[in-house]
Structure formats: structure tokens, C-alpha cells
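Support request, priority: normal
Reporter: lab tech (M.K.)
Component: structure prediction queue

Hi team, I submitted a job for Glycosyltransferase 61 catalytic domain-containing protein from Triticum turgidum subsp. durum yesterday, and the status page still shows it as pending. I've pasted the exact input below so you can check whether something in the sequence is tripping the parser. The sequence length should be 615 residues. Please let me know if I need to resubmit or if it's stuck on your end.
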Amino acid sequence: MEGGGGKAAGYAHHHDTARLLKAFSRTVEPRNFGIGLVAGFLLVTCAYFSTAKFDAIHIAPLVSPLETRIGSPVSAAAAGSKTQLDLGVLGQDAALSGEGSKAEVLDTDGDDHNLVHDASLADTKKDDTFARDGDAAAVEAAKDDDAAGALLPPLSANGAQEEQGVLEDQELLVQDAIAAANSPNKSSSNGGSQSVVQSDPATIPAPVQQSPPTVPVPEPADSPRPATAPRREWKPLCDLTSNRRIDWCELDGDVRVHGAKATVTLVGAPQAEEWRIRPYPRKVDPNAMRHVTNITVRSTTTLPGAGEDAECAIRHSVPALLFSDRGYTGNYFHAYTDVILPLFLTAKQYGGEVQFLVSDLQMWWVGKFLPVFKSLSNYDLVDLAADNRTRCFRHVQVGLTCHADFSIDPLRAPNGYSMVDFTKHMRGVYGLPRGLAVPATGAKPRLLLIARASTRRFVNADDIVRAAQKVGFEVVVSEGTHEVAPFAELANTCDAMLGVHGAGLTNMVFLPTGGVVIQVVPLGGLEFVAGYFRTPSRDMGLKYLEYRIAPAESTLTEQYPADHPIFTDPDGVKSKGWESLKQVYLDKQDVRLDLKRFRPLLKKAIAHIRANKLQ
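Reply from support: The job had stalled in the queue. We restarted it manually and it finished. Here are the results:
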């Protein structure tokens, strides 16, 4: 029954369908049906093209996985938290970011997952810096990295210039760029630029192993740890590029110094290095450096074997500074600019708790400046050449920190030290009472006339004294002595100093703040050498006045005809070299001041001092 009923129903349904199709065929003519099909096809086609993306085939090659990650803060953070910045890769990308376009950088190794963070750094305009002022995370990271002592090289020359801000000239900028490209591990803290580091604080190198703040457990507690476990980038021991005046090294850890062997060794270091350093700030001058001993600075990955360096004869609890006192230190100016001032700049921050190690020690010279050494160190000097023992330190700096000649840049100096701080310190060393150039009530301002005994003498010194007295000065005439203290005491009693360009003007460091320095510049286009005192005097808080003599005021007119090249072509004389210039314009020339022409400068000097008195 069920089977028969089902069959009948199916037959009836089939019969009804046949009748429906027959009726439809009578109402829809073939012509109308064809038009409908065409119209339907057109509607479907329009709908398809309205949703199509014709540029998809062009976009695909330009959108790399790196760009999509760069645009996503989550991806960038993830990359920063998973990988340590690779200096080798960084150096390669840095070169690209400085020379090629953004597209070229992203096109290089675009599929390498390890380059995610590096590519994000390169994704900037060519002249952008990577640690921007507005990027608080980057600034904080740079600070932490400096504290850790793991400095990274600049990513590009432009970035290094904007961050550092205090490079001495364009030549050093080029050197830094070359160093960043060729030796990505090398960097400097000696007035060097701020490190450019990852913006994620959790991955900043630190001096000791620390857990990142966003990761509860950075590593399993039972994971094997090598001897060099602290996460920090290895910083080369020595810096040969950032300072035009001196090469220097900094060693932290188990440092062993053997004076007689002229070696400084860091043992148990992550990697082995060896450098040869002459610790004196005239590295480009062969004459100055020829008597400066080479110090071998090295690191070893193991402890030393049996021998004289195997054990520490003396263990020091304070850091050490190693420097040479040779070079040009026999010249009074160079004694200050090459040793005394850099020593203050480097050692003052230790408050006396620092050991001085002196190579090439000259007893007569050390004795001359012994009060200065005692003011900066609580310990006796060590004569390295005569020391046949191994001394051990936790920190050693080979070569002193120095800026320009006879100058301190407070922006780069420890604790912001300045030339005013240096002069204040020097007055304290010699117990000088006057800190300000304010004469006592009723007293005349005092002028110190530096009377050179040989070259660049004042031929009419007596007339100069009378002219200065006439405008209101009490005048003191002195050539100076070998002993520093007596002349320092004399200079400090004066309010102004007058002299022809020469080392004697270095004694301006003992003038009270607010005093006046008058430098007389001899004939011969010597304005550039006058700069050795021009800027430093201003930095010391002194009023600087410069007097450039006319040909008639030079005794060279008594030795050469008026049409001689030394008058008509001084640049030609200078082009023959320093010795030619020195022989003619510095060694053979004396000065006879035209007092009518010079008197206004004396009046200007005394007016400045009297204004101090009225303040």
C-alpha cells in the first residue's frame, strides 16, 4: 500500500510539471528569452567589476611583511621583546639608510625575520634621527644604555650629528660615519653621541642580568648560563676615532697593569683584543709623540698563566688614570692644555679617590706641578717605567679626556665642569684669595705687563707702562719664573693682563673672574694662533681684548724692505709650513706699540674693571 500510494503521487507530480512547462513555453517566446539572457549576463558582469581591485596586481610587490609589521605597534613591540639588536646586521642597514632610499632598504633581505626591528629603524627619511626629542621611550632607553656602558654606534652620519651636537668639526663626523659602517662594534663615550637603541626598555643591555619589567621570568632558572651571561653588547676597549687629539681606552673588571712591561690587561673578558696607545693628546703630531711610550692595551678570555702577571702584587680599591707627561709639556702653555687641564677634566669627578699612573715621568716637571697632582689625587704618583709589579684595578682609563686646546665643553664634561670651574680649582690649589676682579675701595686697578725676555718683546715697555698709568692703572711688570706659585700669586693680585701672544698668557688662569686679558697679535696673519687664548679667556669669565699691530709697529720693518713677501704675502710664507711661519713672525719679531693707537684699548679695559666695582 505504501509503495503503491507513493508511486501514484510521483506520477501526478510529474504530470503537473509537464503541464506547467507547456504553458510557460506558450507565454515566453524564444526572442524574449534570448533578450533576458543577455540582460542577465550584463547585470552579472557589472556587479563583478564594481567589486574588483584593478591595482591589486601592482600593490602586491610593494607591500612587504616588514612594512605591515612597521605599521603595527603590536608587531614592533613583539619584535623588540623577542630579539636582541644585532650589531652586525645593524651596521649593514645603517649603511643602506644613509645611502639608499627607503624602498631599497626594505627590499634588502625582506623575508628575514631577524630584520624586523632593524627595518623599522631604517624606515625614516635620510636626515631623520632615530632617538627623536619627542620620543620619550627612545630618550629613556638611551639614558639607560649609557648607564649600562653598552654603547651602540650611530646608525647614520646625520643621526650622529643631530644627537651628539657637540662634534668638533665635520671631519670627525665623517670619521664617525666610517667607524659606524666599517666597525659597527666600536663606539665611544668620550664626548661621543648618545646611543641609538631599541625603544623597548625590556631589551636594553644592562651591566647585570635583569628581568625585563614586562616579562615575569626572562629565562628558566635552571638554564645553563655561560661565563659572560650578562646581556650587554661588547664595547671595544679603545676609541681611536671620536677625538682628534687623543686615542683612549676604558677597561672595567679585572684589570691588571704592569708598568715596566707597559701593558694593561683585562682578564676574563668576553672576547680578546689588543691595542697600542700613546696616551698623550697630540696624536697627529709626530714630533710631539716620538718620546711618548706605547702602552699595550688588551683583553683575554681566560686568566693569565704562570708568570709575573698571574697574581696581583697590589690590589687597588680606587680607579686609575694612565697618561704621559712627555710631548710638549716643557712649554708652559702645553703643560696646561695637554696634561693639567685634561687631568682636571678627567679626575675631578673622583674627589681625590683615583690613582695616577704616569708613563715617561719627568721628575722636574712633576715637581713643578706637584700641588696640582695632590689636589686631584689622594695617592702618590706611580712611575710606570720603574714599576715592576702587577697592580690590579676594577677600572682603568688609558689616556685623559680632553676637548679642544685649553678648553672645556661643559655639555660633554663630567658634572658639567667648565673653564670657570677650572680656574676656581687652580686658585684653590695655590691658595689665591681673589675670586672677583673688584679692586678695594680707593685702590687703582692693577695691570700685569708680561715682559718677554727674548722674542716678541715690547721694545717700548717703559712707554707702555706710563701710558697705562696715565689712564689709571697701577702697573706691574714681570717675565715670570720657573716656579708656578710666585707668578700665580702675582697674577691674582692684578685685575688685567697684557702681553704679546705667547705661553705667558696662560697665567690668565690665575686672574680673578671679571678681569681683562689684552692679547697683542704680531704681524703675519697670526689671528688663528691668537685663538688659543681668545675663546678660553672668555670661557674663564674674563673680558678679552685683542690688538693687532700695524706693519709700522713691527721690528720686521728694520730687517726687510717694505715690498718683501713677509709684508705683501704673509699667506705665502705660511704656506711653506709652521717652521717657516714661526721663524719669521714669532722668533724674529718684536713689537713697538703705537701708543696713540693703543690707548683706547687701555681705557676700555679699565672701564670694564671699574664697572665691576660698581656692581
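Residues 1-14, 20-25, 52-231 have pLDDT under 50 and may be disordered. The CA atoms of residues 469 and 487 lie 22 Å apart. Let us know if anything else looks off. Ticket resolved.
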